[in-house]
Amino acid sequence: IFDKQHFKYIILGGGVAAGYAAKEFTRQRLLPGELAIISKEAVAPYERPVLTKSYLFPNEPARLPSFHVCVGSGEEILLPEWYKEKGIELIIGTEIVKADLASKMLISASGKIYTYQTLIIATGSKAVKLTDSGVQGADAKNIFYLREISDADMLVEAIRTKNKGKVVVIGGGNIGLEVAAAMRINKFDVSMVYREQWCMAGLFSPTIASFYEGYYANKGVKLIKDTVAVEFEADLNGQVKKVKLKNGKVLQADIVVVGIGARPLTELFEGQVEEEKGGIKIDGLFRTSVQDVYAVGDVATFPMKLYNDMRRVQHVDHARQSAEHAVKAIKAREDGKSIEEYQYFPFLYSSYFDLSWIFCGDNVGEPVVFVDAQYNTTRPSPTKPKFGTYWINNGKVVGAFLEGGTAEEIEGIAKIVSLQLEAQRDRLEIYGMLVAGLYG
Ligand code: FDA
């Protein structure tokens, strides 16, 4: 006997994109029973970025239901009851282990079959693990990764039991920086280890990075650059105790948190759908190479019209926007209407300690640093964290970064970059902040 269920629409994955897509379905037109969200996670869609930030804080940590989607875009929080009211089936705690796109069928780990008319793939990414590359001892206890709320819960438990011990954070990207800050706020002794010469090397210029590294050092975080972890040693209970680095150093550790990147979850569809740049290839209306199958969020490689390029973006702003646009495209197609193709303008943000930055556009060309006009220096000062960087390419501003900006300045900077204003380096160096304010 087959346990089988059919839906007009299935969203596979119950993360950020799924939640924003569900909301958009209800804004468009949705009948009870038409839509199901199938998710491995045990909870309704939530704003994932919280997991490395306030979820880990010692005082008044963020907990569900306060950060279910769509709180991140300032809209109503979609509680589990909301899905029920709208007749959306929230099939949580359910992993899909096989997808057969030709026969429009998904099969769960417990053998249940789900069929659909239209599928939206929103499986997101998974953390790259040290065990993937065979690092010795990397399967010891208390080595954590952060992707899902269940991962964060295990780290929260370790924070409680290892109370103010030693933490080694591996990876100098955003996850590493955010977790290192959170662990320091929890009064742990924190070291960060990363392969690159400076933190957030994919985005930050050396000048931007040196500001944050100075700030972290002032907060007591030890930064160990230009090396990697090659071995972990555990005690008799299998709990991690030591981290050996390639440079010969050995660090004591009660907790290790690893943030060395994320890979899109495309395995289920391998050989069934066209892929590009590690993700599922879609067109400007989120259509994959398979009829009635769409992809959104982290997993999709889409035409980035602004840069005439195919890209994959692993940021929450894209997850939200792509999901909404895909649902609009699906609905328009059903109605025989046409809508504009997706025009994504990259916008990312993060916060550590009492700092917070935004970045928009593309970080190509020459970076030009500017600081708050009150401070007559071209180097950001660790005591007054307000500065930025414009990237100039072929005489035009193509990207911008801003730490500590006001809402108006952030808006101004985004405008300057989206318009690709022509600019001169020396002017921007002096008037960069002023210009941001003027455009805001
Ligand atoms: P997302 O990962 O949100 O959801 C995918 C869902 O699919 C998960 O629920 C997963 O369990 C489920 N799934 C996968 N395979 C499945 C299967 N076979 N069966 C059933 N379910 C399956 N971005 C940013 O701009 N600023 C920031 O500060 C941060 N901070 C941040 C912190 C942390 C800890 C993470 C992990 C990520 C961020 N991000 C971020 C990135 C951002 O959260 C990310 O881009 C979005 O969550 C992507 O949304 P998706 O819906 O595509 O995937």
Automatic annotation (TrEMBL):
Entry keywords, A to Z: Coiled coil, FAD, Flavoprotein, NAD, Oxidoreductase, Redox-active center
EC number annotated for this UniProt entry: 1.6.5.4
Cofactor section: FAD
Monodehydroascorbate reductase 3-like C-terminal domain span: 346-423
Catalytic activity reported: 2 monodehydro-L-ascorbate radical + NADH + H(+) = 2 L-ascorbate + NAD(+)
Domain FAD/NAD(P)-binding: 7-323
Origin: domain of life: Eukaryota
Described function: Catalyzes the conversion of monodehydroascorbate to ascorbate, oxidizing NADH in the process.
Family: Belongs to the FAD-dependent oxidoreductase family.
The protein's name in its UniProt record: monodehydroascorbate reductase (NADH)
Organism whose genome encodes this protein: Ziziphus jujuba (Chinese jujube)
Portion of the full sequence shown: 123 to 562 of 567
